[in-house]
Amino acid sequence: MDKAQSCFLLLELFLAFSPGGAFYFYVLDRCQFSSDDGHDVVFLEQVYFNKILEGQYNSTVGKVIGYTEATQAYANMLNNNLEFIKHEVWKTKLCKKNSPLAYKGLLTPVEPYVWLRSVEAEYNTHPHMLICSAYDFYPKQIRVTWLRDGEEVTSDVTSTDELPNGNWLYQLHTYLELTPKPGEKITCMVEHASLREPKLYHWEPEPDPRWSKIVVGSVGLLLGFLFSIAGFIYYKKKSVGEIIFPLNVKPFQTDFNI
């Protein structure tokens, strides 16, 4: 057993036989990171007793911190132990080395749900604003761009940062102000680790409600005209099949006496 392990063992024995009536003790090693290359790795070795954090080694600080009067003395002793500090530095390097493997092998990318819509732009030079929203995606890195007839648009474009949902998933919103032109194609292009190739979402302009009323009225007039013609044809056909006698003329009769 090396000196580092023996120092930790002394701390554990002190907590185990302290007169606090404690019954629950454990040591937790934690490797925390959020990047795919391990540059932001933090290694924590924490000592809990009675479900209370008594002390910990933090790689960003580089030393052990005691949170109670009893453990502060032991923390100072461990910090003065070169073998213990070297051992903690070795575990920190191991954490940084393996974090990219864990990131790529254990974390599965989640495909974003994309909603493309238009709103009326108030107090702007352009009458319309398109919003392309990407929801519930992972990892955080994503690229959302606007295309106009296949060409990337950079002017009149604003975007939010990747916003955390609080459940390891993210969302992002990007806005495009524009004055629509007849026949042009506006597209929101999304690139993400969960997609094998960029995904395109095309904007379909909503028809002008004034034209909708004109079309409905025209269809109504056309249907009325067709029903009128059909009724007239039916009336003419029925009239040809009947014999109509004048009111003052009787049908021809013959009276033969044999």
Automatic annotation (TrEMBL):
GO biological process, one term: antigen processing and presentation
Gene3D superfamilies linked: Class II Histocompatibility Antigen, M Beta Chain, Chain B, domain 1, Immunoglobulins
Keywords annotated in UniProt: Disulfide bond, Glycoprotein, Membrane, Transmembrane, Transmembrane helix
Assigned GO CC terms: MHC class II protein complex
Membrane-crossing segments per the record: 214-235
Subcellular location: Membrane
Topology with respect to the bilayer: Single-pass type I membrane protein
Start and end residues of each Ig-like domain: 112-201
Highest taxon in the source lineage: Eukaryota
SMART domains named in the record: IGc1 (SM00407), MHC_II_beta (SM00921)
Protein's name in the database: Rano class II histocompatibility antigen, A beta chain-like
Species assigned in the record: Fundulus heteroclitus
